[in-house]
Amino acid sequence: MDLKEIEKQTRIDIIDVIEKSNIKSGQIFVLGLSSSEVNGGVIGKNSSAEIGQVIVGTIYDELSKRNIFLAVQACEHLNRALLVEREVAEKFNLEEVSVIPALHAGGSGQVAAFKLFNDPVEVEHVKAFAGIDIGDTSIGMHVKHVQIPIRPVLKEIGAAHVTALTSRPKLIGGERAQY
């Protein structure tokens, strides 16, 4: 797998999703990642620490430039908990859980984020404004309602299918309501 190409594809898609989502400074962005899928394998069967480092590092770089917080979703072995900076957990009053991610229990994205973040903590849930899903990991449970699909400019990173979500406030009221 060509890591330079993975980085290039990731940068193209993350910038596109940031722009299309209208996410703002100080909001949370969630990443779901299957390095197995990026590598051409089946989710959970061929994890790559190197791919995780490239993708998480690239996304973290682009989000940090905009003061957007990254939450990295774990696999089902950690109940899809999220790794965030302690600052984020405290700011958003997120419930911390006790676990340290591993390549096959948490995934390559979480392992990469654990090394990259200044003070990483696992939390049970977030309500992110937007997110990107690389490898069909199902990030929807961590994006606020109402969710709006985004079609990233690149449909694949490596061999992994890519989707994205943003959100908007709920429309409430009846026929007299104005938006």
Annotation keywords:
Antibiotic_NAT-like; UPF0340 protein BG261_00680; 5 helices; 179 residues; DUF436; nine-stranded mixed sheet; alpha+beta; globular; Rossmann fold; single chain
Account of the 3D structure:
It is a single chain. The chain is of the alpha+beta class. It has one domain: Rossmann fold, CATH 3.40.50.10360. About 30% of the residues lie in helices and about 20% in strands. The protein contains 5 helices and 9 strands. Strands 1, 2, 3, 4, 5, 6, 7, 8 and 9 form a 9-stranded mixed sheet that branches. Helix 1 packs parallel to helix 3. The mean pLDDT is about 95.
In short:
This protein has 179 residues and is α+β, with helices and mostly antiparallel strands. Helix content is 31%, strand content 22%.
Shape: globular
The CATH superfamily appears as Hypothetical protein TT1679
pLDDT below 50 for ≥5 consecutive residues: which ranges?
none
User: Gap between N and C termini, in Å?
Assistant: 48 Å
Q: The CATH topology is what?
A: Rossmann fold
Strand count, sense and closure of the main sheet? Answer: 9 strands, mixed
How many H/I helical runs? 5
Taking all Cα atoms into account, the compactness measure Rg is 16 Å
Number of domains: 1
Q: Report the average pLDDT across residues.
A: 95
Bin the helical content: 25-40%
